[in-house]
Amino acid sequence: MIEFSTFEKSFLFILLGLTLYSGIRSYKILFATIKRGRNNLSKITVHRTWKVLTEKIILLLPTWKTRFWSNLFHIMIVWGFLIFLIINIYDLLNRFFPTFTIPSPFAKILFPLTDIFSGLIIAGVFYFSLRRLFFHKDLMIRGNVKLIPDIRKKINQDSAIVIALIFIHVTSRILAESLKAVYIPNNLWLPITNTISSIWIPTPFVIFFWKVFSWSTLISLFLFIPYFPYSKHFHLMLAPINYLLKQDTKTLSAIQRIDFEDETQELFGAVRLEELESSSILDSYACIMCCRCQNVCPPYNSGSELSPAAFEINKRYYLNQNFGRMNSSSFESLPLTEFAITEKAVWDCTTCGACVNVCPVGIDPLSDILQIRRHLVLMQDRYPKSFQVLFKNLERYANPWGIHNIHRLDWAAGHQIRTVEQNPDPDILWWVGCAGAYDSLAQKSSLAFLNLLNHAEINFSVLGQLENCTGDSARRAGKEDLFYQLATANVEILNEINPKRIVTSCAHCYHVLKNEYSDFGGNYDVIHSSELLLELLDKNKLVMRKNFNSERISFQDPCYLSRFNYKSDSLYSVLEKSNCEISTSPFNHSATWCCGAGGSQIWKEPEYSEKSINDIRFEQLTSVSTKKLITACPFCKSMLSDANQKAEMSVVVQDLSEYFIENIIMEN
Amino acid sequence: MRIVICIENAIDVTQPFQITENQKNIGNCVNILNPWDEFALEAAILQKEKQEAELIVLTIGDEKSDKSLRNAFAMGCDTMIRVDVDPFYLNNSQIAEILAKAFKKVGNPDLICFGKKSIDFETGMTATLVAKIMDLPYLPSITTIDELDTEKIISTFRIDQEKIMTSVNLPAVISVSKEFAEPRFPSFLGTRKAAKTSIIIWTLADLDIGPKKYANPDFNITTIPVKNVHTEMIRGNDNLEIVSMLDAKIKEAGV
Questions:
Q1: How far apart, in whole angstroms, are the C-alpha atoms of residue A189 and residue A520?
Q2: Tens digits of per-residue pLDDT, B52-68?
Q3: What's the predicted TM-score (pTM) here?
């Protein structure tokens, strides 16, 4: 008979019990570890579950942004695993109860699918083992990045173990099924199983080998279950859970407000794993160590010690090393800056969000980095020296330039412009921004936008001396108390004015005003200048010149518009109005490449060992011959202008408003 | 070691201010911790980081000065003392006299630190006068503290391009130049602690100074008239040409 003996069934029962016991124990430890973080996990709803199941598990939508072939093989393995989840339950029941069968219509689908996907899983495993173990793709982390010792060896060992277990499990099952088919022929379409089966000669050895392969199928599964939480392949389970439990936020990597009025609060920011949010600990388990984040990280590509991938990998291996300890509330983990990321790397981040955007499993290293920055600044008073001047200027003059507010409107001297005191009921309140008011390059953009507004006869006002910095630089530099101070003051002024709409040309001001002031009681209708330009062109309040020469331009998507706020459509729609030819960089729209200014980097000296971020971005944008480089953020303009000067190129770097004013009919 | 840092709640002259109509006072002004004193604070805090030291920040002023005191405390001081007198109508000698009495009451400080001058009246006299009254050695505008122990201080100061290293016995008075080090920004936890820490307030009576000793002097406040400065960059092919052009210009201007 081709079935397990009573002894084998009893043995299987004991093994199953042991596996389940050890599995449940591991998972309990794991979830206790995750719960040690500050609880920010979302509730699971039917809608959310359906979305995760379809988008993240079945279609694997977030993975398709890069690496097509890897994703193709990966999806085969994922689908195969889902099928094996069902077939393994069937196999187990069948070993205990040989007469157990699956209803025919369902069997006609399940068994052929299992057969086909067994082949596809083996093909996928073969592809990934070649890629990982022989070609050493992906895990190329530069030597200057902090990594737990022997991590490459450990990851390769893990990959080898998992690949071996999957290979043994799937091939053993096919072989067992093919041997079974010698005695119990099936009338199903099982191309792989039946082809192999045709080779076997019916001898008593067939039953012996069926048992051998059945046991190796089961034992590989029983070994895999308790090993799973230690492996990076745990992402299979934790990545969907990560998506399920992640809070819905307005934008990418939303920053939590600190309530400074709460005097009982003793901890600000985070520097240990248990001080991070639960979702950040979950992130470490969800990480697939694919290094996609590292590949798109501008500082890493400039030679920095920062690698978001290495950070997550270090977190995960620290958790593995302390499995069974981390779940205890009395255990204090080492500071992240001692094993996961250097302080220098923390300060190199441009907060561009590329890592968060590209991650196929929803990991957010940026929010961890910002939490560490907060902790370093607020709890330890440690930050780059150049930020001293930034903080002083922001505190004393409410702008990073350290120029008194009486000079806020100097740039517009001699031009028609009214403040809210002069025009208290405007249709649009123009938030000029500190760069627009004080930076000589950005002042040109402000003048262009002012002329466009006046030409379109818009009833607008500016805040003038009432305008303070939004606090973006302070917040991204971890100086949350200063951000709090600036945000509270700005919200108070804005709420008093109660603007119908706010327009701004600065991507950073836009992001903060639109998304971050609501935590301070400021809810405004905020638009970017590009959106207003599009509106004015559509309404024919601004008219393009007919004899306008279409030219080839390059466009820099500002991270805080195109990535954080998904505004690239309106940006490109405006550009298209000018009939220009936009030369494409591989990094555009939400996959844009940072100019190097974000995350307060503009206020500190870059210390990268290789090329500066702005030089890299400038090269990307000018790789195709272009006359003009257009952007929609004063900081991008400043950084790219610097790179232009350094490269001694004659490219004209302009803001959208400057570009448009050259091509708008200004005569009435 | 006990180090006292003397600070001033100065008028921020980079911001708008108004001289009152009777020219007796300054109104609508913003007061800040005198930026020059921040260098003195930084110098003292750096010493505290190197060795055991108690940092006492002291000022003369009314409660408007508390903010500056708390800022100094948040940078890294241990105690705040305010002598409750409006120093606006006091001259340098009177201020120095009060300070000297206050330093004595503090209890024999080893080192007394001043900023080089204040940003509002810019006299830069107080430190010298205090040293004179207390009969202590004085090191002006130091750029580094090369050595500091319980007995002596070795420090460097600059006269023109010359760097001079001097050693004096403690107690001593120093004033700190801006070349010393970029002053730190008050820390967040320091600011929190400062808000909860009480300021020790001394009156003139506490310092054994009679209330009527300092009568309001009669003076008027005026601003320095704006100078009409004409600048011109002289360019030439070589130094000789530039010098001869400069010479001609000076002669032409009749200087």
A1: 63
A2: 899 999 999 988 899 99
A3: 0.87
Q: What is the pLDDT of residues A81-140, one digit of tens each?
A: 899 999 999 999 989 998 888 888 888 899 999 999 999 999 998 888 888 767 766 568
Q: What is the pLDDT of residues A535-562, one digit of tens each?
A: 999 999 998 877 666 678 899 999 999 9
- Residue A37 corresponds to which tokens in the numbers above? 């973080």
**Domain covering A386-534, topology:** Rossmann fold (3.40.50)
A459 and chain B in contact, CB less than 8 A:
no
Q: Are the folds of A273-378 and A386-534 the same?
A: no
Contact residues on chain A for B15, CB-CB shorter than 8 A: 404
- Nearest CA distance, B196 vs chain A (angstrom): 11
Do A597 and A477 form a contact (C-beta atoms < 8 A)?
no
pLDDT at A597 over 80: yes
Chain A (470-499) residues lying within 8 Å, Cβ to Cβ, of chain B:
479, 481
Tell me the angle at which helices A634-646 and A440-455 cross, rounded to the nearest 10 degrees: 130
Lowest mean pLDDT among A252-261, A314-323, A333-342, B1-10: A252-261
For residue A300, which phi and psi values (nearest 5 degrees)?
A: -60, -45
CA B183 to chain A, closest CA, distance in angstroms equals 8
Residue of higher predicted confidence among A253 and B75 = B75
Query: What is the distance in angstroms between the CA of the first residue and the CA of the last residue of chain A?
Result: 97
Amino acid identity for residue A573 in this structure: S
**Residue B13 CB burial class (10 angstroms; 0-12, 13-18, ≥19):** middle
Interface test with B, best of A392, A408, A480 (most B CBs within 10 A): A392
Model confidence over A373-408: pLDDT tens digits?
999 999 999 999 889 999 999 998 999 999 988 899
Question: Which candidate from A268, A378, A388 shows the least CB-CB separation from B182?
Answer: A388
Is CATH 3.40.720 the classification given to domain A543-661? no
Considering only alpha carbons, which residue of chain A is nearest residue B74? A381
Domains of chain B: 2-214 (3.40.50.620)
CATH ID of A273-378, from 3.50.50.60, 1.10.10.10, 1.10.1060.10, 3.20.20.140:
1.10.1060.10
CB contact under 8 A, B188 and A406: no
The C-alpha of A282 sits at a distance from chain B's nearest C-alpha, in angstroms, of: 30
Query: Scanning the structure block, which residue is given the tokens 């070589």?
Result: B238
CB contact under 8 A, A378 and B188: yes
The span from the CA of A179 to the CA of A173, in Å, is 10
Distance CA A55, CA A44 (A): 16
Task: Please identify among residues 140-199 of chain B the ones whose CB lies closer than 8 Å to any CB of chain A.
Answer: 182-185, 187-191
* Residues pairing with B166 in the sheet: B155
Would you call A406 an interface residue with chain B, using a CB distance cutoff of 8 Å?
A: yes
CA distance A463 to chain B (A): 19
pLDDT at B20: 76
Span A12-19, average pLDDT: 94
Q: Do A396 and B187 touch (CB under 8 A)?
A: no
Extents of the domains making up chain A: 6-34+66-230, 273-378, 386-534, 543-661
pLDDT digits (tens, 9 = 90+) for B86-108: 877 788 888 898 999 999 898 88
Q: What's the average model confidence in pLDDT over A429-446?
A: 96
Q: Do A404 and B14 touch (CB under 8 A)?
A: yes
Q: Is A625 left (phi over 0), alpha (psi -120 to 50) or beta?
A: beta
Q: A391, A474 in Cβ contact below 8 A?
A: yes
Q: Which amino acid is at A213?
A: F
Closest Cβ–Cβ partner in B185, B187, B191 for A392: B185
Q: Which of B18, B39, B67, B185 is the best residue to mutate to test the A interface, defined by the most A CB atoms within 10 Å of its own CB?
A: B185
Percent of chain B exceeding pLDDT 90 equals: 42
Q: Do B14 and A377 touch (CB under 8 A)?
A: no
